[in-house]
TrEMBL record:
The chain holds residues 340 to 593 of 607 of the full protein. Residues 1-254 form the EAL domain. Transmembrane segments: none annotated. This is EAL domain-containing protein. The lineage of its organism: Bacteria, Bacillati, Cyanobacteriota, Cyanophyceae, Oscillatoriophycideae. It comes from Laspinema palackyanum D2a.
Length: 254
């Protein structure tokens, strides 16, 4: 079987699974959210990275059912944790370029949110800079349509594309995620430190909350704390984990 054929069957064979990586408030060290990250357990090839199969899903159109399953699963899971009395946290879902451009994205989202019962303010949609190179007015209108549903929108992998913060100003984002290549070694790499700090200050002046990705050491954390970064995500706190494990972390108030 080709990878494409296997991917066609992955959903019905229940080979996809969502992992959750905690997002932590920097001031109090509490979990404030999770990024949902899809995993594919291929029956023969074992774990296949989304870096490999998401682009394939986009090329083949399979991103529609897969993306729908991801959104449904993330919303249902998050609502169910809340119903069990765990501290309410938001869930961040990655949307690919093609998903963002689906004509029926809003209707899908409205339906999924209603079915899950999740308050829309707990859903965060992660978009990358790739969406910003399209028609600006159209993209802003789409973002506003999504925002009018009450969901939050973040700009993922910030710094890896071509957009400056002043360009960003016109788009209605709520959060900005600094790509981990800028966060790496900020305690020893002066260039990265300067860039990261400038991004945080400017983002705050534009009323955006900032999430630093890929935080791996206490030393990096200390620099981010000094510079009033809002949230952190990275192996220092936790790798992406299975739902049961994330639930345990929430329960323990880690
Ligand atoms: O955690 P990991 O190495 O698996 O993530 C690799 C990449 O796959 C990241 O860029 C992440 O944004 C992307 N990714 C993970 N899950 C999803 C998903 O559900 N949808 C989309 N579009 N991308 C995802
Ligand atoms: O592209 P996106 O930011 O959505 O994907 C997040 C990716 O970063 C995932 O592949 C996730 O597993 C990975 N990741 C999360 N935390 C860390 C970290 O601390 N170090 C490294 N190297 N990768 C991380
Ligand atoms: Mn992401
Ligand atoms: Na990212």
């Amino acid at each position: 079987l080709t990878l494409e054929t296997s991917l066609r069957y992955a959903l019905e064979r229940q080979e996809l699974q969502l992992y959750y990586q905690p997002i932590v408030g920097l001031q109090n060290g509490r979990i404030v959210g999770a990024e949902a990250l899809v995993r594919w357990h291929h029956p023969q090839q074992g774990m296949i990275s989304p870096v490999k199969f998401i682009p394939l899903a986009e090329q083949t159109g399979l991103i529609a059912p897969i993306g729908e399953w991801v959104l449904q699963t993330a919303c249902n899971q998050t609502k169910s944790w809340q119903s069990e009395g765990l501290p309410p946290v938001r869930v961040a879902v990655n949307l690919s370029f093609r998903q963002f451009n689906q004509v029926d994205l809003s209707e899908r989202l409205v339906r999924i949110l209603a079915q899950s019962g999740l308050d829309p303010s707990y859903l965060e949609l992660e978009l990358t800079e790739s969406i910003l190179v399209q028609n600006v007015e159209l993209t802003i209108a789409k973002l506003n349509e999504l925002k009018s549903m009450g969901v939050q929108i973040s700009l993922d992998d910030f710094g890896t594309g071509y957009s400056s913060l002043s360009y960003l100003q016109q788009f209605p984002f709520d959060l900005l995620k600094i790509d981990r290549c800028f966060v790496q070694d900020i305690n020893t790499n002066a260039t990265n430190a300067a860039l990261t700090n400038a991004i945080i200050q400017m983002a705050h002046s534009l009323n955006l909350k900032v999430i630093a990705e890929g935080v791996e050491t206490p030393e990096e954390l200390a620099v981010l704390y000094e510079n009033k970064c809002d949230n952190i995500q990275g192996y220092l706190f936790s790798r992406p984990v299975k739902a049961e494990e994330f639930k345990r972390m929430l329960k323990e108030g880690k």
